[in-house]
Amino acid sequence: MSLIFKICPQDLWREAEASGSFHGAPVDLKDGFIHFSTAEQVRETAAKHFAGKDDLLLVAVEGDRLGDALRWEVSRGGALFPHLYGPLALDTVAWVKPLALGPDGHQFPPLEG
After folding, report:
1. What is the Cα–Cα distance from 54 to 85, expressed in whole angstroms?
2. Residue 81 near residue 67, CB atoms below 8 Å
3. Domain that residue 12 falls in
4. Structural domain total, the chain
5. Span 100-111, pLDDT tens digits
């Protein structure tokens, strides 16, 4: 299982759970795809885009189940980031865990399955 990660405000994720799929946060809707990060990228993503924000969830998704809608595209510093072109089906989610904000930034749970 190849996990990719989405940092998501808790209220947006609860809406997705109620509707059965996740269509993205405002930045995703603006860009036309859902932004994800790998395990190696997600801490930097949190620091860059979610610094000081709490009430977040870390959503682990089985990337290999997303098919052709998942594309690896060049982003920050030339790194390849996973982008999903289409809604995220909730049955591809491996787990959802709180992403607590501590005194030194976000406190990540173990990122393996």
Report:
1. 27
2. no
3. 3-103
4. 1
5. 999 889 999 999
